Amino acid sequence: MASSPKPVLYTYFRSSCSWRVRIALAFKGVAYDQVAVNLIKDGGQQHVDSFKTINPMKQVPALAIDGIVLSQSLAIVQYLDETRPGPRLLPEDAKKRAQVRMISDHITSGIQPLQNLHVLQKIGEEKKLEWAQHFIITGLQALESLLQYTAGQYCVGDEVTMADLCLVPQVYNAVRFKVGLTQFPTIVKINNALLELDAFKVSHPSCQPDAPPQS
Amino acid sequence: MASSPKPVLYTYFRSSCSWRVRIALAFKGVAYDQVAVNLIKDGGQQHVDSFKTINPMKQVPALAIDGIVLSQSLAIVQYLDETRPGPRLLPEDAKKRAQVRMISDHITSGIQPLQNLHVLQKIGEEKKLEWAQHFIITGLQALESLLQYTAGQYCVGDEVTMADLCLVPQVYNAVRFKVGLTQFPTIVKINNALLELDAFKVSHPSCQPDAPPQS
One Gene Ontology cellular component annotation (chains A, B) (predicted)? Predict the structure, then answer.
C-alpha cells in the first residue's frame, strides 16, 4: 500500500476513543479524510474482513498515516504530537508529562474499557446501564481526587493536554449513561472550559458526517 | 512531604500492572523500596484511607519518586525511561515508538482491565473464569495479528521495549486463567525469549517479598 499524503481516520461518530483522535487532529490543524465504520449497523462494520486487516482488534479509531496504520487513541495522539507542528499536547516538563499520561491512562484504561460496546454487549441489555454507571462513577470519583493535585484551568496546569482529550469524551459518555455530575465540580468546570475551544467543537460527535440527524 | 532519594513502589506480587513497573525498575537498574499492598487480605489493603491518599484509584502500582506520586503503569514506565539512564524502553524512531505504545495500550486498555480484580468481583465467582478467558483470548488473537507487522526477536523489532513489559505479565495472567497458548505462536516465542532476561526474572511475582511460599 502506497503511503498517502493525507491521513485517513477510521472513525465512528459516537466512539469516545475516536473523538480523542479527532480533537488531536483538529488541535494540530492536520487535514485528513474520514472513513465511517458503523459499530452497530449490519452487526458492526468493524467485523468485516477488510477492516480486520486495518485493525485486528476490530475497533475504531485507526489512523493510516505516513505509510503505517496505527490503532489505540493515545498511541495515535502521541505520534501526532511528536511528528506534527502546532501546540504540544504533552508538556515539556517530565513530571507534568507523567501526570498527563497518568490521567489519560486512568480514563482510557481504568474507565472507558468497562463501558466499551463489546463489553456491554456481553453484560446484556438488562444490566448494562447499572454496570456502566458503577464503573464510570467509581472512575470519576478517583479522577476528581487526582485533579486536586494536577489541575489548573485544564486537567494538568493551564495548557490543553492529552488528558483533556480524554476527559471531554468520557464526560460525554457519563451523560449518555445518565450519571449525575454535580458530585464532580472540578471535572465539570474543566469540561465546560474545554467545550468552548474550537478543536473540541468541530470534533464533537454531533458534528460528524456519519452522525444521524437527531444526534 | 520531602522527596526521598530512593523511590518507593507500592506493589502486590501478583498484580500484572505492578510487574510491568518492577521490570522497568530492574531494566533501568533503579534501586527502590517496596511497600506491599495486599489486594485480598482484610478486604483489600488498597481501600484503607492511608493508601487512598497515595492513589485515589485504590490500585497498585503507585510510585513515589522525585517528590511526586505516580500511578498508572505506563505513565510510570515512561517517566522512568525519560528521567533515568540505561537502555531505553521507547525506541528513538517515532513510528516504532508509536507501535510500542499501540501494543502496550492494546494490552493495558484492551485486555487487562477486563480481568482486573474489581471487575471480576463484580462479575461473580461463578462466571469470572469464562469472562476472563473470553476477553484474554479475543485480545491475544488481535495481539498475535498485530505482532506479525511489528515483531522481531521481541514485540517491536529486536530491542526490549515497553510493549514487552506488558506482554509477559499478560501471558502470566492468561496461564492463571487457564487459557491455552498454542494458538499464539508468536506471543509464546517472544514471551519465552523475554523470560530468559534478568530484569524479567528478578521481577517475577514468585520472587517478590510479599509472595506466599507456595506461589
Answer: mitochondrion
Is residue B45 within 8 Å of B15, Cβ to Cβ? no
Residue of B57, B68, B99, B123 to mutate for A, most A C-beta atoms under 10 A: B57
For B141, the domain range is 94-199
Whether B69 maps to a domain, the answer reads yes
* CA closest to B101 among chain A residues: A75
Contact yes or no for B110 and A113 at CB 8 A:
yes
Total structural domains within chain B: 2
Residues of A in Cβ contact (< 8 Å) with B141 = 56
| Residue B214: inside a domain | no
Q: What's the pLDDT tens digit per position in A104-124? A: 999 999 999 999 888 999 999
SS3 A36: strand
Minimal C-alpha gap between B206 and chain A (Å)? 26
Is residue B140 located within the same domain as residue B163?
A: yes
Run means of pLDDT, 10 residues per run, chain B, 215 residues: 75 95 97 90 81 83 95 97 96 98 97 92 94 96 95 98 98 97 98 98 94 77
Residue B213 included in any domain: no
Same domain, A41 and A111: no
B11's CB contacts (< 8 A; 6+ apart) are B18, B21, B22, B34, B35, B36, B37, B60, B61, B208, B210
A21-53 pLDDT, tens per residue? 999 999 999 999 999 988 888 778 888 888 888
